[in-house]
Amino acid sequence: MGSPPPARPRLVDVAQAAGVSTATASLVLRGRPGPSGAARESVHAAAARLGYRPDRNASLLAARRTHLLGVLFDVSSPFHAELVTALDEAAGEHGLDLVLSTVTGRRDEAGAADLLLDFRCEGLVILGPTLKRSALVDLGGRCPTVVVGRSGTGPVTGVLASDRVGLELAVDHLARLGHRQIAYVDGPPGSIATARRRGYRQAMRHHGLDGEIDIVAGGVTESAGASTAHAVLGRPRRQRPTALIAYNDRCAIGARDVIMRHGIEIPEGLSIIGYDDSPPARLGTVDLTSISQDPVGLARATVATLARSFDGEAVAQGSSRHTDVVISPRLVIRGSTGPVSA
Amino acid sequence: MGSPPPARPRLVDVAQAAGVSTATASLVLRGRPGPSGAARESVHAAAARLGYRPDRNASLLAARRTHLLGVLFDVSSPFHAELVTALDEAAGEHGLDLVLSTVTGRRDEAGAADLLLDFRCEGLVILGPTLKRSALVDLGGRCPTVVVGRSGTGPVTGVLASDRVGLELAVDHLARLGHRQIAYVDGPPGSIATARRRGYRQAMRHHGLDGEIDIVAGGVTESAGASTAHAVLGRPRRQRPTALIAYNDRCAIGARDVIMRHGIEIPEGLSIIGYDDSPPARLGTVDLTSISQDPVGLARATVATLARSFDGEAVAQGSSRHTDVVISPRLVIRGSTGPVSA
DNA sequence: CTGAAAGCGCTAACAT
DNA sequence: ATGTTAGCGCTTTCAG
Lengths: 342, 342
Fold this sequence. Notes:
Number of helices of chain A: 13
Strand order of the largest sheet of chain A: 2-1-3-4-5-11
Largest sheet of chain A: 6 strands, parallel
Number of strands of chain A: 12
Order of helices and strands of chain A: HHHHEHEHEHEEHEHEHEHEHEHEE
Number of domains of chain A: 3
Distance between the termini of chain A: 67 Å
Mean pLDDT of chain A: 90
Oligomer: homodimer
CATH superfamily of the largest domain in chain A: Response regulator
Strand content of chain A: 15-25%
Radius of gyration of chain A: 26 Å
CATH topology of the largest domain in chain A: Rossmann fold
């Protein structure tokens, strides 16, 4: 199982071994200017020899800087997984580390956030749309906070990919392939679904397809998508769309399943576009064209926003409505979309 | 975005407001015996009034106890997600909290583990089989360590679900349904696949089905499963199995896809069992019978093992081979298995 | 350029 | 039962 902690070497030990004071050793190890040549070498040598690793907790207690970003996420979300990975990378470029916290049976979102605060994070990243607005504002009041994937409120900045642009990309792509009867499979009640639905309408109008606007009930899950597909396939032939844009990949995949079992080929008989570019969409067997929210872009923007807030001066807490950072999503073209059949 | 940290109240502040010493306040806040009645009340009141939250770092620096369990996991694994959730719950029951660390572009497994050690975790939980044996042994030497899902080595205890029992459950279930031609879809090279393959053989023999043992090449991914299915469907009818047990769910799902597209009904035409009871297996549209490694059971055993190691005396570092805790997996019956067709 | 010394916020002996 | 006093391991003035 493992031995009890075998007394880690401390800074004093390194200093002693290097024949300098702890002050000098500390400076050297953090690459601070001051100590020179001889000192640096012997300290580094000693540290390496002893296998020294600074005690993070002691450092931060003394320095009042933790270099920690707290991330509140949902372990079971693949999208969050990608974001976390990207955030870690981005954080690294700013000399920051991540502390992860997740909602579990014993801890709701507020509790998970408190845990992060207890670690004295310098910034908070909230993934996902489930935290209550009031809780968000509260967090924002205690610590620089960014919420990813939705608009910010009050002191909290939102970092998100534009749903309007996302749907524009999807509709453009399909229109270019000759589709006109492009239906949109709606999501669950909420601001994200609203934005996407609106984006769909707008994009259709841009293409002069006002008359073809066709919004069908859907949802978040595979089975919601399956129901939607049944509904659509139940229509008379002429009224069936030639392409479907779904609220998200899961919903698209559920629909795809039913459609294929109906003997309709994809994309020959029907084109499908999902949203999120999630791992299942990328499977060879699924191969779903999808809108990517560009997790790497979101992560970079998030960390940059946060870093700016503690490096520089406090961010202008301007009008409570325009504190968002909006990036563009990307269209990932795969095999589920093709030219409309003659 | 959020305000700069508004000077958290410290223990002194609480003590002062309550009119007691920091020592008393400290004891009260941690629910330690000593202070009584009057003191307790006023301290709690003061703490609540000031919104006091102890500084975790300072506490642990002083107490040399972090009450932290470090967990090294793969963010993109749904199975790990379940384990993390269950671990958190189990940790809570022992008064412990989790620190999560994951492999990313900038940090390999060793780096992620170092990060955990930097947080002064009292115990380490390694999920997943990818950490090198030598690295594992190294970690085990520095901190009580448990590896979940595979056998331990040297000082590291393994906590795992028995693959032998798992395959027994699967074969039993199918045999009870009348199946005899039960094929096993093999996994990738490695100890897990070896154990499952062996379990399959053994279970078949138990049922007197030695002659039916049928191991086909497979893999980890959906597309591996798809290839396997193609191979099996390419056989002459008589030689086709009536049931398939796959190395894991992903592989099972890939196979299922191909089989269904071949016009074969599941389970009427063929029964399928997966392994891991992963979220996709539970989808209504997939509904895959699967072997669950019982994440909750694994988590409980893991935390208990670790907790024992720092509460009690050092664990007997017995023979380096028998340091495993093995639990029983569970069979989760869904719609992908049924009686063999007459 | 380097060392001595004073904390960071808390806990734990040791006194009282 | 409560208060006083050292530290935990590090950073950081401030002298030398």
